[in-house]
Structures are given as structure tokens and as C-alpha cells.
Amino acid sequence: MITLVELEMIPVRSGFAQFRIGLSRNFNVLMDLEKQLNFLLQLD
């Protein structure tokens, strides 16, 4: 019998791999946003 925890872990394992791929793609975007925010903060 499959427990509830095991059922919840199945999509988490595959989803986490997709999440890590998306995170690495979005990381460069986040770094650019952070640079823009720092620049805007320096203008004040």
C-alpha cells in the first residue's frame, strides 16, 4: 500500500527537477533585476 507521503513525493521529485531548471534560467533575470533595483536606490 502506498502511503500519502509517497504519493506526495512523486510529483515533488519530478517537479523539483523542473524547478531547478527554471531557477537556473531565472537566476540571470533576477540578478539583472537586482542590479536595476540597486541603481534605482542609488538615485534617491
Describe the structure.
- The protein is mainly alpha-helical and 44 residues long.
- It has one helix spanning 4-43.
- The longest helix is centred in the middle third of the chain and has 40 residues, at 4-43.
- The model has no long low-confidence stretch (mean pLDDT 71).
What does the secondary structure layout of this molecule look like, with pairings?
Elements: H1 4-43
List keywords for this structure.
44 residues, 91% helix
Helix fraction by DSSP (H/I, runs of at least 4):
over 70%
The largest sheet is: none
Mean pLDDT, all residues:
71
**N- and C-termini, Cα separation:** 61 Å
Portion in beta strands? under 5%
Order of helices and strands: H
Unreliable stretches:
none
Shape: elongated
SSE-based structural type:
mainly alpha
Number of strands: 0
Rounded Rg: 18 Å
Helix count? 1
